[in-house]
Automatic annotation (TrEMBL):
This is Winged helix-turn-helix transcriptional regulator. SUPFAM superfamilies: Winged helix' DNA-binding domain (SSF46785). Residues 11-27 have a biased composition (Low complexity). Pfam families: HTH_5 (PF01022). CDD domains: HTH_ARSR.
Length: 123
């Protein structure tokens, strides 16, 4: 089966500003990368998961701390953590009887923070 054709996008530069130069077209990103990015964004697309990422941005937390901070039932927190873990957003480390969760990559927290800021600016 042939691979999906690549799609043009205009990714940001390392400085965070758009990569635009006169005379050059947009960079081409393989479809697989775009599909993976879509899966990542779907994993972040729930209010409770956004709140979890914001909490973990501040500090590593165990499940009961997230339950207390977010006022959400423990089974629901665990379910959302499982989605985030499967997507590679968080990872857990057993410490005694508890599992402490942390963000795998701060870039993901920036996506969430920027999305929340964007919504707040519009209100």
């Amino acid at each position: 089966m042939p691979a999906d054709p690549p799609h043009p996008v205009n990714p940001g530069s390392a400085s965070g500003s758009p990569a635009r130069s006169a005379g050059s077209g947009p960079a081409v990103v393989p479809s697989g990368v775009l599909a993976d990015a879509g899966e990542l964004l779907r994993a972040l697309a729930a209010p409770v998961r956004i709140a979890i990422v914001l909490q973990l941005r501040a500090a590593d937390r165990c499940v009961h701390e997230l339950v207390d901070e977010l006022d959400v039932a423990q089974p629901l927190i665990s379910q959302h953590l499982r989605v985030l873990k499967t997507a590679g957003v968080v990872q857990g480390e057993r410490r005694g009887r508890e599992v402490v969760y942390r963000l795998v990559d701060d870039h993901l927290a920036h996506i969430v923070v920027d999305a929340v800021a964007h919504v707040q600016e519009g209100k």
